[in-house]
Amino acid sequence: MFNLILFGPPGSGKGTQSERIVEKFGLIHLSTGNLLRQEIADKTPLGLEAKNFMDKGQLVPDEVVIGMIDSCLEKHAHAKGFLFDGFPRTVAQAEALDKLLSLKKTSICKVLALEVDEEELTKRLVKRGETSGRSDDTNEEVIRKRFAVYRNETEPVADHYKQQGKFEAIKGVGSIDEIFNALSSCIDTEMAAHPDLPGGKATTTQA
Ligand code: B4P
To answer: Of 5, 142, 153, 168, which is most buried with the most CB atoms under 10 A?
Structure first.
């Protein structure tokens, strides 16, 4: 399997870029934010629990999101690969993901991290809040809380993958097309380095 993580702070464009990446490279998109918002829309017990955390700008407990990812991996056992978007967000989630993937005899190939400063991120999230109806985007205090949580709980995940030599930073400011081209070229390079994997050079050239 060819597995990628798209990493970055809230509003850095993970969701925006993920949609394009999965279309171009034929990966399964696993966005924990989208999965949680679907649970909230369906008013499931998990969704009601998650909403309490998300509305305050906090992370949903690790065991909840890890369980969701586990069942998605099972559901798509024959996928050519996954794009993890917004997951892992804590070191515990990263360790759990490494374990789940190793049980399936696979691993993360690359972590692509979108770098955007907080001033730009705040502008984007406030703007999205005007139209999306997302309760975590409409209040600047909640947005600031999300940045603090990112610095304290999520940034250490970068070190986890730097130690494995899998981390690559990408400039996340510019047009959506420019950023997509930069991400695509990293993914092409990575796939070429793993021609043995599904989605590697040997198979993409036939597509
Ligand atoms: P997520 O759904 O993951 O969303 P996000 O971090 O807010 O945004 P993303 O980076 O995807 O930004 P987007 O492309 O939409 O998380 C929401 C919440 O769910 C978390 O706070 C947490 O509570 C919970 N959660 C999720 N996963 C969890 C986990 N693993 N563990 C625990 N809790 C979890 O872009 C943002 C805006 O910028 C958009 O309006 C977009 O149009 C715009 N934009 C994108 N690219 C742009 C560009 N290049 N220039 C200008 N604007 C751009």
So the answer is: 5
